[in-house]
Amino acid sequence: ANDFDGRSYAFAISSMRVLFALGVWPRLKDVQPILRIKVTDGRPGEGPSPLMLTFDHGEIEEGPLGYMVEDRHLRSELLDAAEDAGVTQMDDRVIEHNADRSGALASLGSGATRRVRLLVACDGQKSRIAGRVGIRRMGWSYGQTALVCTIAHEQPHQGIAHQFFVPAGPLAILPLSGHRSSIVWTERAARAETVQAMSEGDYLDELRPRFGRFLGEVALAGRRTAYPLRLSIAERFIADRVALVGDAAHVVHPLAGQGLNAGLKDVAALAEVVTDARRRGEDIGRPEVLKRYEQWRRFDTMALAAATDGFNRLFSNDATLLRGLRDVGLALTNAMPGLRRTLIREAAGLTGDLPRLSRGKRL
Length: 363
Prior knowledge:
single chain, alpha+beta, D-Amino Acid Oxidase, Chain A, domain 2, FAD/NAD(P)-binding domain, 3-stranded antiparallel sheet, 9 helices, globular
């Protein structure tokens, strides 16, 4: 486990379909289906409220609610699939680029240059490509940090994911293959720094009151990581000969597990726009082509950002009145099958104007 950094990803059904259409999904190892999700509210050491919200895979026809995939398997298989498809991979970075009417000239850190029609920025929330073209970002820090690790436990998880809301922030317990679960533990930033510096034993002692004993004894199975949480949305997703995707375009709170899924939907939408434009004989880097991508993804991204921000503010506090309203709201939602099904389909990425890849169709 020493080479495992503890990171795993929750894949929505639509994201699974993207990778399946690209031939990557069948290559992945240790994929764990999510069969049920339990959402609860409470305090560390006191256990969750009896008023909860439960989602079950039997409520939709498409299969499991989602899938868990470890980063170490995903990254290697994506790179291998790209190589098999004839994609040129370069261990380099763009340090400067200049756009004109016919394309863009990208200067690389190695000293090489490349002439391209379109430059796609996938370089994270501090995207240097976006910065060079003057795209600013809007958002704020949550004052929270996500502590991420994988744990091994005695009892089987039965494919159940848990989202436990506590005053400092949500704790996600996500099933992995075998008797293991991925933990995304949100803490206030100052406290998280202290916890991350603890020994393995003290770290687990801090986790146990939040985690409980429903899976028996627990132990760390891999390295621990931590990253600060913030909302960060690019004011524009496009510029001259440039398109932003993934974290370069948007970063949201991880409480809904939708960050990677939103990025894959960006990829699917941009790929479709570019492919269709090329078939029509259009220049794929022209503003009118890139505008189709931005219009397609902008509203969906802003809606996701508003939802995750609102839920985090609603649940990451200990106000007595709000706690009562939250618990009643979870119970009422749980008693409404139609609403539960709608929420499941939304989280699974099965609603809205989906790109062809997100529907499992090749371009």
